[in-house]
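Schema walkthrough. Field components (list of strings):
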Amino acid sequence: MTVNRRFLLCRRPQGAPVPDDFRLVEEPVPAAPAGGFVIRNHFASLDPAQRGWMDDVPSYMPPIPLGDPVRATTVGVVHNSDNPDFAPGQWVLGLNALEDYSVAMPGGFTSVIDVAHVDSPSRFLSAMGAVGLTAYFGLLEVGKPQPGETLLVSGAAGAVGSMVGQIGKIKGCRVVGIAGGADKCRRLIEHYGFDAAIDYHGRSVTELAASIAQEAPQGADIVFENVGGDVLDAELMNLAMRARIVLCGLISEYNAPEKHGARNLWQVLVKRATMTGMLIADYVPRFAEGGAEIARWMAEGRLRVDEDVQVGLENAYDAFMRLFSGANTGKLVLKIV
Amino acid sequence: MTVNRRFLLCRRPQGAPVPDDFRLVEEPVPAAPAGGFVIRNHFASLDPAQRGWMDDVPSYMPPIPLGDPVRATTVGVVHNSDNPDFAPGQWVLGLNALEDYSVAMPGGFTSVIDVAHVDSPSRFLSAMGAVGLTAYFGLLEVGKPQPGETLLVSGAAGAVGSMVGQIGKIKGCRVVGIAGGADKCRRLIEHYGFDAAIDYHGRSVTELAASIAQEAPQGADIVFENVGGDVLDAELMNLAMRARIVLCGLISEYNAPEKHGARNLWQVLVKRATMTGMLIADYVPRFAEGGAEIARWMAEGRLRVDEDVQVGLENAYDAFMRLFSGANTGKLVLKIV
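Field assembly_structure (string):
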């Protein structure tokens, strides 16, 4: 491999991204800068958050500059290096981009990882990556589940949601998942062990709210929110007193030029509920602790973590859009090499 | 007075209430039931919450039954009684209705009040009533203001908002108020001692967000929300990291048949903010504590509490609608006798 294919953002998407918002270019493989190193990316994480980074709006990270490759968490191998802490051949995890090779400097987000005990290095983008740790810390630290409580999870068949539901079961909750389509709902029950699953497809807010009420007649003590929009509105009509809403994502709104908005916020008032925004970046010092418990649950067969592995930088656009079409089940990963 | 005028809800309002949703009727003055008593109402509280009770939707209180008088907190005098704890002539505060005379039973919400040290019994509907206590406990217990923090208050010239801002100043915050119109904004600065006031009239969400950014360049550490809709959306674009949003009211949405919704909830996520619903009913055991501190601040001249006293049950509809037109400054009270 003598070229570095890079998947560039060349235009800010209006609503849903279209192929022409991006361009795949070939450049020479970079050399390691003084004190830095070059990573051969093997897997890249595809996440809803990347859609936000494509907009030119204030967020917890700067927008991706136009002409730069799309920012992504990747796992890869140090290719060449001018830094003794990152030797060629070492596996690393870091915030890089959708490209064959990324230049990195120490002091950034890159860390060396031990892939000896995982079935695939991509596990560091799923179970032990931001997705798994988001499920773990979001549910346990913000949701604070207690045995016997009812946990309602939206986007339940997704990467974060499926882990949240399973961790909720481990913690003794009754777990109700909301997902799109009968297949996903069956999967929630049979594959992930949820107590109940609700299909939101083709249902109005009122109908969806009624379905939730059936499965959670006392209301939800915890709502783990990945979706927003109509789904959130239906959930808000089913809060238990002093419910905790973990605001983890609002994927239904990311591509919407005119956002729908949460119309039932008054229920937060009526039920004295609390809605708290959660970003995994706040838990970096505790990643080792969370990763270890996730690995243990997986080894014990109590936690299943699925990956939806798409292949090839040339398919980056189609792969990314699976997040929004609802096509992916499990953590979406792009295999680069 | 030998008749009991009662302001009945005879139809559930669609959007903004219209006069035909109500009817003023005359009935005989009731007799005290066994073990109960009859209250001659002197003042009734007019509050946005009453609009919610007129709808047939689940809330923290049952809907007002059609044909019943409009539920309201009142202060009045025991008129006749079959209960030794409530002797004729005693002043009482309770959850009654917009009517001359209300029947009450012990064990309900009625309590005897001491009006000797207030300039008007209506103070128990404003400064020391639900309004004052909502401002007090909402800001102090949910907002948790720290000296030097920035407090953003919507509906700032209203009954709750004007007290919240002043208590924020007492606690050492920089206080920025949002209100409708130049007069109200001037009043916030000159009358209530706010640090800054922003007029939302005629401003888009983007323009309002820019005005807030100017007055709160580091963002708001606390948002005390009374309004919702566009105002909330503009505030959400100006949160400081880990901001606390006290969700106290959403008055802009109460009459909206199609609710607008909060479109910028993603900022709660980005800023790891917390939004918590607040109802004064949760603080009943601490009313004496809050009332005493409010009275002390008023006596010290540090807290001004204004009342907008409208007169006459026959004017109940027009008086109530002042809440939504933005006409009232200070706590809206209906003087019945």
